[in-house]
Amino acid sequence: MATVLALVAALLLGQRPPTAHAASDPAWGVLASGCTTSDIAANRAVGIGLVEVEAYWDRWLPTSAGVENTDYVADLSARVTACLDAGLRVVLGTGTQYPPSWVRGLPGATLVDQRGDSADTGAIDTVFSAAVRSAQDDYLRRIVAALPVARLDGIRVGTSAAGEIGFPGPNESGTGFLQSFWAFGADAQQGTGLAAGMPRTPMPGWVPGTRTWNGTTVTPAAARNWFLWYERSLMYAVKGQADTLRTAGYTGAVHVPAPGKGVLPADLTAATNALLNGTGDRDGSLGRGLYYVDQFPVLAGNVASTVVVDLTGVDDATAVTARALTPAQDTCQANDATTSIQSSTPVASWSNLRFARAQAARAGLAAVGENPGPPAAQTGGTSNSDSEAEQIRRSPAYARGCALAAFFLAFEDVLDDPSSGSDRQDYVDAVTGTS
Known about the structure:
Elements: H1 2-13, E1 27-30, H2 37-46, E2 50-54, H3 57-60, H4 70-85, E3 89-93, H5 101-104, H6 130-146, E4 154-156, H7 186-190, E5 212-213, E6 216-217, H8 220-248, E7 254-258, H9 265-273, H10 285-288, H11 292-302, E8 307-311, H12 317-323, H13 336-339, H14 352-363, E9 366-370, H15 388-401, E10 406-409, H16 412-416, H17 424-432
């Protein structure tokens, strides 16, 4: 029994037990840990040694700039420290997806699409607005000053209302309009109040789908150049956060959660040939500004900190579809990094994880991953997703097969909820292959 327990602990802590996966087995963790005394005890009891802990911007600075909720800061610091002192590895989520109400009133905070609509999902402009970026930078510096960041495994950064990279998605204007591009505020269009280091649009006033601009014909090349500016703006925003953390004294890894598979090369060709009028948009990735083929190399070449891509589609609905094909297309293969951008490769049938993992490998970036969580939780799962129990069962094989450095199970509270039907032992059994 002692030998079995030692093996389980080694697997979950990401050490190298004598198994077939000894050279590359991921570390196994959980998302959104409370790091309470009971959480720590429960995780240690089964050998879970890696946790993600979320900070909340709106709880840290709830009323105004510079006025901290000292009770919240002290509590968060104590919980993170308790996890670390107990021997757990910790990745911190900055929680910039939870902006205080006063931030929403800053100049340029409201995202605006090409129709003049704003996002109805709570997303704010952390990409182009200088005022929002300044407030965000102040918050990030406070995190570095108040928390034991030198002991962390990583800090997560993002731009979206989900804490991932990306602009709002399809129909997030709430008007029924399915393809918004969120770069039509005065900052991005005119340079008024534009965040430092951010280039303004290469075609001020041009609306995607429009055939002319300033009296000249818009070519597919010009439309492509506009889209590259749009999607790279997200990377410059991520770089800004990483630079702020580094300047404040944090020298560790920056984790960048990346949803879906993003725009495929063939999609972008079809889309820009149609001048971004909506053609070629499989899943809303164009409006979200997700083009990992280009973005991951941009991150690798421009961010001074160590970048770890967090692939949030482990066993998502696309995995369910891809593994039903003949042959199955859900599992990462050794040559994916080189074949994924070849025109003859049917990457549209690959799972999100497989394609996005290939782009991280192409860029030379380490990758971790997480499952979407319960289908009804609105955290990435859909009616076509596996159940949470099935995600727990299948995710370890996907994480191993895609050579992920770590896997975070979504979520810790699912394992604490008797009604979920899954607990920590089920997770351990899935990892060790005893389920």
